[in-house]
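Bit of a strange request maybe. I'm writing a small parser for structure token strings and I need a real example to test against, not something I typed by hand. Could someone generate the tokens for this chain?
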Amino acid sequence: MINPMTLNPVQAQSIKPVETNNLSTSSSPADLTKTFGDFLQKALDGVSAQEQNVHTMNDQYLLGNVDVSQVMVATQQAELGLQLTSQIRNKVIEAYQEIMRMQI
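Reply from user aminoacidic:
Good idea to test on real output. This should exercise your parser:
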């Protein structure tokens, strides 16, 4: 039986609340777009970091430095992150299409 205390914890990224950067109601659309773009960039960087973590864990497993359960946990985290990113992309495209269908 594996003792859970001997396993090295997989570095999981926690979801942090979005910082408002003290945006007032008089912020320009360019400022809001930049903030949203920064948020998306950070989210995509997080997914990329998870994927890199899987590759690192896989290499460490091949060298015998980590347990297979750690590799599986890292793999599942990266897969869930990718699925979440795909669903968010789908919803953004759907919202854009809905806006384009609106009559003025």
